[in-house]
Amino acid sequence: MNENLKNSMKKILIATLAAIMITGTAGIANVIPETPLSGVSVNAASASDFKTRSDGSSGTAVIRYVGSGSTIDIPSTINGKLVTAIGAVSPSDYNILGCKSGTYSHMTSDSDVKLTNYYPVDHNGNFGLNPRTCSITKVTLPNTVKDIRKYSFAYFYSLKSINIPNGVTSIGEFAFGQCYRLKNITIPASVKQIGNSAFERMGVDEDNGETGDDVTIKIYSKNINMQYVNIFEGATIYLYKGSVTEKTIDDISKYNIQYLPENNGSKLVNNQGVGGEHMSTWVNWNNITVKSSFKGEGGWKYKYSYKNDKDNSWVDLAYTSSSSYRLPKFTKAGNYTIRIAAWDRNGEYTSKYTYLTVKQDTKQALKDNGSKLSSTTISKGQNLTVSAKFTGGVITYRYKYAYKKNGSSSWTEVKQPKHDNALYSTDDNFTFKLPSQSGKYTVKVVCRDGKGQSKSKDMTVTVK
User: Fold this and answer.
1) Domains of the chain with bracketed CATH
2) In sequence order, what are the beta bridge partners of 275?
3) Alpha-carbon distances of 366 from 230, 304, 383, 457, rounded to whole Å
4) How far apart are the first and last CA of the chain?
5) pLDDT by residue (tens digit) across 185-227?
6) Minimal CA–CA distance to 127: which of 47, 204, 28?
7) Rounded to an integer, what distance in angstroms lies between the CA atom of residue 456 and that of residue 72?
């Protein structure tokens, strides 16, 4: 041990004893140094830096860190086994430095440590802080970890940074309790359970007048019961609106709640108004529009991109505040992925993928194939039925009906009551009434196919 470290440890013991004399034992656990103790900052990646125990047939649990660095970089495999858990197997309330809270440096075994009202004591009943819990500033966990057990990082007083990999399913009781300098943490969507008091006083040294106002927790999991997790009031919590996570937070009004962005029905839509997540079009046609819909804090910015699934290279199309974007013509047949990237006013990001099949046009041209009227002569007020018949083009067909009195240049388009008074519908037989004025009329049926091309047929009828 170097002289600087010895001197720092002595200062801590003196401060601790002074606190005992002044305030008694009640506040001892919160005596922490203003800066981490000096030490060599080395990323730990060697198996010799860790003690492990079997976590099943194929996994191993890291139960102790015995390295000397101020940053802990846990490898994904140790001694040929995947690291699947962090924290003691038995007993389960020790942190990974081998102590329940903090200990004197001479404590070397579990039997030297006991817990009295959550304060660190040695086997003689003396209070103290483990200098090592004051020196760790950063922990990096591998993506193989599934379980962060209770007390794993409790009392890591100087910890400022830790990642929780997507794949972790549970975070144990008091796992980050009293990590006073850990102001930010992100919970991935894979987490299903968080233990009681997991973030107790995380990021907040209350005895030094700190509040939760500068603590931020982002929770990407929607189904966590947060009832007893105990986040300090005033913290900013990012979560999904209407989720179980939101609904189970105790006294949610105490927090600054920010809603994470999520897709709310973004889709592709063709010229006929037909939409979905997977649409089809034709080479050299630009009849597809992206309709973006997200929910969250608002203030959206979008980036539209696509890639041909064969070359897997993204092409950016536009960065805009518009939620509607018309896709360009695709000159090659194939399957395309359309990406809608969205950022809210907080800079939080999400995305939605839709899919477009572009086909080579081998169909015949759209044409009339015998559309007709129910009669060429009708009485005033009599119904007239138009039977539309077209072939070629691309299914599905949609029809529009119109008429004008001969000699007039103005067409009257007929609304279709069965389809919310729309002008186009899939009805190829449509009955309506012409004006109660005698004379000759021209009736038009317009057919628009799935490719967006249109053909029409004009027919003449006399009203007597």
Assistant:
1) 3-260 (3.80.10.10), 263-359 (2.60.40.10), 367-463 (2.60.40.10)
2) 269
3) 67, 32, 29, 12
4) 113
5) 999 999 999 999 999 999 998 878 888 899 999 999 999 999 9
6) 28
7) 74
